[in-house]
Each structure stands twice: as C-alpha cells, then as structure tokens.
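Weekly modeling sync, notes
Attendees: S.R. (lead), two postdocs, one rotation student

Agenda item 3: backlog of single-chain predictions. S.R. asked that every request posted to the team notebook include the full sequence so nobody has to chase files. The rotation student volunteered to paste the first one in as an example of the format we agreed on. Action items at the bottom.

Example entry:
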Amino acid sequence: MSCSEDGYIHIWDTRTVTVEELSKHIKRFEWIPFLSVNLYKQDGSGEVGLSKILFHPNQDNTHFFATSEEGDLMLIDWSIKPVGEDTKIAENVRLTRDSERNYRPTLALERSPFYDDLVMTIHDFHFAIWKTSIET
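Predicted structure, as returned to the notebook:
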C-alpha cells in the first residue's frame, strides 16, 4: 500500500510472477495498482493527502490510521464505495483528529507496543500521543 499527497491511496499486487507467465497473458507489462482510493476531507473541502500509514500487526479489517500532510490523524476505511449515481466522493475518512500545534506533514506514526489504543505522531518540533479508543 502506498500513499501520496495528491489524495490517492494505492494497493499493489506484489505477488511474484515469472517472465514466461507475463509473456503468456500480457503483451506489454505496466505496473498499475490493484485498487486505488481517492480520499476527501470530511468537511468536503477537497482532497486530503497522506504522509504516513499505520496498520495493526494482526489486522483483520479494512480500517487503518494515517496522517495527513497537515499533521492530522485520521481513521480511514478503504472499503467504502461511493453511494448513488451522482456521487463520486466516497466517505472513506471515518474520523479526523486535528493537531492544533502543527500544519506540516508528520515525520513518524507509531502504535504503542504496550497499549493498542495509543498512537504517537512525531512532528518537526513536538510529538503527540493520541488515545484512539475515545470517540470525541
């Protein structure tokens, strides 16, 4: 999985294939993502770019934490599809926690080795510890 500041998350198929298998089925090989998700801010003001992604070690669902280019911590569900025929925007961002002290990309995003509901973000001049089990 890769993220970028243009608002896209790409999920890649990285299985090993031989040159013979590729030549049987594909005339020209292109590296394309298996799935792409375009993220939008919860307030609808545009795309949200990501700087870091964090998965749980024994994860069995489609939710993960990520940080935006503005230092916000977000809970994202990549399985959400757009609803309705006229809607192209899916509400993949389920929760946003904004940092009052930073408006730059996060340098690191890590989960506590002792408590599953604590996440730490490292910024330029400070760090923040987030308790993710609190709803508000």
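Discussion: group reviewed the output briefly. The longest helix spans residues 19-25.
Action items: rotation student to repeat for the remaining queue; S.R. to check formatting next week.
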